[in-house]
Design goal:
mainly alpha; single chain; disordered C terminus
């Protein structure tokens, strides 16, 4: 994956010859030649989605085979993976907006949706990566709140059940 990332980085940096033709080609006064940017963009997006799905699906068989973990722990891991799947969904949604960019009269304005979904993908991806490390402190700081809610629920329900038994 590292080779893929570096390869696409250099292909996008050096997509035009001369290099400044990348940002000067719009005025029609400069001469140069560029690679097929559309093809490279679609290939990069497709490979990105493919690698996201591989990362999502690769550990699933081992996760299902785990017997030493509690059900609660397994649910937590599955939830982290589902958030990761949402990151992949952001990549797919972003891909639907890319064709509009090629035919746009105002690419700066039409890039908004692509930038929105790209930013959301990155932000949610970082949150997903941090979830396992954040679980401990969140449980530590909110244990009293959660415990008091569950204990008041169990006291109320046990009082009601005791009252219904005593009426009989």
């Amino acid at each position: 994956m590292l080779t893929y990332g570096i390869g696409f980085l250099f292909s996008f940096i050096f997509q035009c010859r001369p290099l400044n033709y990348t940002w000067n080609q719009w005025d029609g006064e400069h001469e140069g030649v560029c690679l097929n940017v559309k093809g490279a963009t679609y290939a990069n997006s497709a490979l990105n989605i493919f690698f996201d799905l591989v990362v999502f699906l690769l550990p699933v068989p081992r996760l299902l085979a785990l017997q030493s973990r509690s059900t609660k722990s397994k649910i937590g891991v599955v939830l982290v993976f589902l958030v990761g799947l949402f990151v992949t969904a952001c990549s797919i949604v972003r891909q639907f907006y890319v064709p509009h960019l090629w035919t746009s009269q105002n690419p700066t304005y039409d890039y908004n949706d692509i930038a929105l979904w790209s930013g959301l993908e990155g932000d949610v991806g970082v949150c997903c990566a941090c979830m396992p490390m954040v679980a401990g402190p969140v449980l530590y700081f909110f244990r009293e709140k959660v415990a008091s809610r569950f204990s008041s629920f169990t006291k109320t329900s046990s009082t009601k059940s005791t009252a219904s038994i005593s009426k009989q």
